[in-house]
Amino acid sequence: MDRLQPCVLPANGVLRQSLLELLARSENFALTLLLAPAGSGKSTLLQHWRGRCAAALVHYPLQARDNEPLCFFRRLAESIRAQVGDFDTSWFNPLAVASSLSPQLLGELLADALARVEGPLFIVFDDFQWIDSRNILEVMAALLDKLPAHVHLIIASRNHPGFALSQLKLENRLLCIDQHDLRLSAEQVQLLNTYLGGQVLSQEYVDSLLGMTEGWVAGVKIALLAYARFGTQALQRFNGSQPEIVDYFGHVVLRQLSPNLREFLLCSGLFERFDGALCDHVMQRTGSALLLEELAERQLFLLPVENQPGWFRFHALLQDFLCRRLQVEEYVRLDQLHSRAADYYLSLGEYEQALQHAQRCTDQALFLEMLENSCACWVRSGQFGDILRWLEPLPETLLLAQPKLLGWLVAALSLSRRFHQAHYYLELLDSLGRSATVANLEPASRQFLALLLGLFEHDKDFVLPRAWRELLEVGQELEIRACTLVVIAYWHLLAARLQDAIRFASESKQLLAQCGHSFLESYTDLIIALCHRNAGRATHARKEVCSDYQRTDKAAPAWVNRATAMVVVLYEQNQLVEAQQLCEELMAMVNSSSATEAIATVYITLSRLLHRQQQTARASRLLDHLSCILQLGNYARFISQVTQESMRQAYLSGKPAAMDAVAQRFDLPARLQAGEWESVRTYDENWERVGLACVYWLQARGAQAHAGRILKVLAASLRQSEMRARLLIVEANRLVLAAPTQSKNQQLATLAGLVETYGIVNINRSVFDEAPGFAAGVLDLAQSGLLVVPDKYREHYGEFLQGIQAAPPVDALASGLLTGRELEVFECLLSGLSNTQISDKTGIALSTTKWHLKNIYSKLNVSSRTEAILAVRPRASLN
Hints:
two-stranded antiparallel ribbon, 879 residues, 5-stranded parallel sheet, Rossmann fold
């Protein structure tokens, strides 16, 4: 597991050693609850503790926008994966949250994913008071119920977290640190006073101050700031209650500021975070950056934003106070200030902040204009979740008055597979079209939306309307033409018309680049890559995909499409380590707005790679989860891919019962009985892939003749199509099936025919995987001396073609390459034990085990556990 270096954080406040020692006890509890009002020093304490924590630590500072399940758990998964390399997103990812799974099951899935992380892990939720979503709280409760012993949660909040804690208390799994623990002591008051630049206080004044503030950090700090400026008189004027302390801060400290500085401070209260440029623009002034530095030096509860030099935020108490004062003192200017702030954020492309300020203006027209601008950009960049989040809460009457917004809502719902809602809003648009008094979208826009919805809802069963060519006429709006071309390209891909798909996608790609539609442009890249792959043009696909992938920002939704195409290339070229790493990254990125092609490709590829590593439970879980996702629409084509892969994995694992279960689940006996694969038909991917699943099942049951007839029919159908790569896989299966009844020369002649017809570059990883036994046949011919394999190809697919070494791996290493202790550790590794299990078995510390493994990898010239095993135990075939 990736280990974090101890955080180096800027000094902020006084170190409170006793509290740090108390918080250090969190390693003995499932949940540590830091519960106290604002201004009690929770964040400062966590900051100091994080600087000392040597274990893996994930810090998740929460904001108001996190009170939405998909956003909350996506950011959580990204935060964990960014800090912990072995967090397994195949068990828990954003799509799991977006599915119909119960909160209880989601909590268990997250617990399962965390259980696979090695070593102690702390997850810190700061400002949890923002979270009151019932779904989030139920998942958190379920997570705590199943939380692995080495994982510890820390929740800092102003109020109770909103889920039951009684069971945790009964099981002694809860550590509570409350406002009483966080009270300052007399000694700490003196230290804080020195830190703030005040003169030494007498014990009498310290006792008086603690009596008035009850040790509340914010209250003490406000009083000490006043004391540093005005002496003992300031302390004498306190009466001790929290509201009056804040009131004192406003009327004594704030009043002492110059009018210019006071106005600046008040207006800055509009922002959650701010820098000099923002303040200059909104307040129509100059020099704000220097003024912010001056305020920060005065310790006026102005805090620097981590990892954003020049940006600041107020303490929550001060911001609340400033906002209230601003409502009173600057009420007339509020609209103007919010309007300028919205304009500023819009110019930076920070649409979320822009909309928040526009929404606070009394002028609704400004908000709607900003919303139209934001949605237009979100559509082009593929941020459909943001569109749904802002448009769905709007009243229907407002949407009807803004048909552009309604159109974007239909597009976002269609691409997020929420087809029933998309139909409803599309019908609203149609009803507007029948009204002569209400403005509406142009007929071409409504026609395109219907086309988009129909294709993504019905997939390969979609029937193109007769009038679709009207959308491509020369006089048509460029954006409509470009988007229609990509939809038509995808429609051709579904029907296996690869050349037509490439032609439409290539034309669309050029127009989309002109329009700035980065997301749909990346979708054309995925279409083109899949076309080249299916057409058997592996080299051509690789060059284009790599170029597009390398120029795409990972933060953009377009990256998901291009990274998915890159996964296909890496996998086919047998670069499995890189393919799996990219799949793992994508698992944390794909969501309900991602293309179904991308989701299915990532899930199935990662499942296949995990099964190859004998991680059968995880591989099966991914396929089951994908099946749940595919229930949201008419996805027979993708379900057929799941059917084939499920049967293939069961076949390779030698599990007849599992194969029978797959056959029953996907109704294979009835389809075979109906003679579905007895005669040639126009190529259909669903029919072909389920047919291959039947072939695997029949072979395992000894019905080779029946399997051979199906393969013959599939081959005849594929020869009439452009799907050369799929035909090669079927032909490879036919070669395997016929091999037992043929001489080696006959097998060689058949194999030579495949190489001559398709080119050796297209006999890639998919062929070896989807034609079980093919690799063993090729290896047998090579070892018999009949087949000469090119060195480069042998090197590329050495896993299949190098043969099995005669000497056992451990004996080969016993010659002195490894030390005795390293050999003991390596034997455990070869047995499949985890690092923790190796430590337990050998009786050495986990850190020492990792040190030994690092040395072993170095001596074997490998970089991972899998490569180390393969280095001494190459596999002849998947079987």
